[in-house]
Amino acid sequence: MLKKCCMITAFIALITCTLHARQTSVNQDTLINIITQKKDRLAQHKRLVRFIKSYFQNSSANQKSGGLDTMRLLFSKYGLPDNDAFSNFATSLYLNKHHDLKNAEVHMLRAIQLTRKNNDTYLLYQFLSHLSFIQTDLGNFTGAVYSYRLAKKQASLLNDNYLQALLDVNISDLYYKSSLYNQSINYLDQAALLLRDEEPDRRTLLTTIIYYNKSENYFRMKNYDSLKVYHDKLQSPNNRSYKIQTYRLRTGYYLRLLKQDYLNAIKQIRALKNNEKYVPADLDNQQLADAYFMSNQLDSAKLVINGLLANITDDNHPEIKYHLYELLAQIAEKQGDTKLAGENYKRALKESQENILRITQVGNISSQMKIDETESSYIQRTEAYKRERLWLIFIVIVAALIIIAIALIYRNGKQKRHYEKLLFAAKKEELAFINSHEVRKHLTNILGIMDILKHSDNKTEEYKQVEAYLYESASLLDESIKNISEKLNEE
To answer: What is the pTM assigned to this prediction?
Structure first.
């Protein structure tokens, strides 16, 4: 029995290892197919960036560097033109997955430096965007905003609305983390406008993220009605995201918190930890601490807050720390420990000062971003004006040519009519001449002969003498009449 159990255990372990290997191993055939794609370099770069991002997003955080090593080996073996840049990009994503943010930033900067030499707009856009993600996680919001500013310049050159919308969503997240909620919502609205004419699949996925990000902003602004609107939008079956269930459940307990239903909110947040479809985050514990405090469960709130402060995480930036230290100070006050309350208020003040400084710096660079956007809009409008001016010049030239053509046609018609009048007059004179000189001449001869015959005593004898002259005059008259007929039939 024991042997059988061991065999079953070993078999299950083998299956688990195999499944894990399938999930974390690199699909070499697909990667080789992408690397050896020669015709369309931009399409190759897009496929390769998607492949690398998808691999590291779907891999586990405790994964070893085998997949990264395989990628770098294949890049070199099959002669990827941007081998060094992509190797540094992949390394940065690997280090970011393992929370080694400083070294992830170093490798992303190397990738950007290598890409600048080739002046590759698409790769610069991607690498600068990812650098912004890393700098945001490091709490370097000033650097993140500056990187976004550079990325926006590349996005405007690409003229791809989806990429620009995606960048606006990321910038809105930065404003959200800086407590600049109205600016965050403005960028989300801007992203939604850019998505209007995009393909349904791409539009739907990013629209879901926009709905959720707006929900986050309205929750922080304590705007229950607007939060409810976007919570309801997230319930639509048309929304798609690998975190869609998380979005729906999180905005659900947000509504409870804004309704001050703290006890049920606490139950809901704690139950989410056992929900396999839910993707937990530190902000859940932040809201749990607030709910504990508001429901007067001070020790539970303190326990959660101390756990958050002990862990340096992506969301543990000055604005969050300020709020957590302020909560600890208020808890200490309620528990009568004024000394501890004072110490925590000092810590909260320090974090608040850092947060204000960071917001000021973000505001300065974001102002420059607005200038860049205005310049970009001006350049686009100038280019549009140039195109419109060229079209206007073309239309004017075509219109002028049409007018000239009409004038020529009219002049030609007028001249034709004039020539026809001259020709008619000439024919008329010619016919008059023929009529007066030839027709009447022959007719007069005939009439003269007929008059002679009329007054002749011997008509038979006289006729025989003038018959030939009569026949000749009649023939000549016939020819003259035919001649007139021919003249009349001429064009």
So the answer is: 0.64
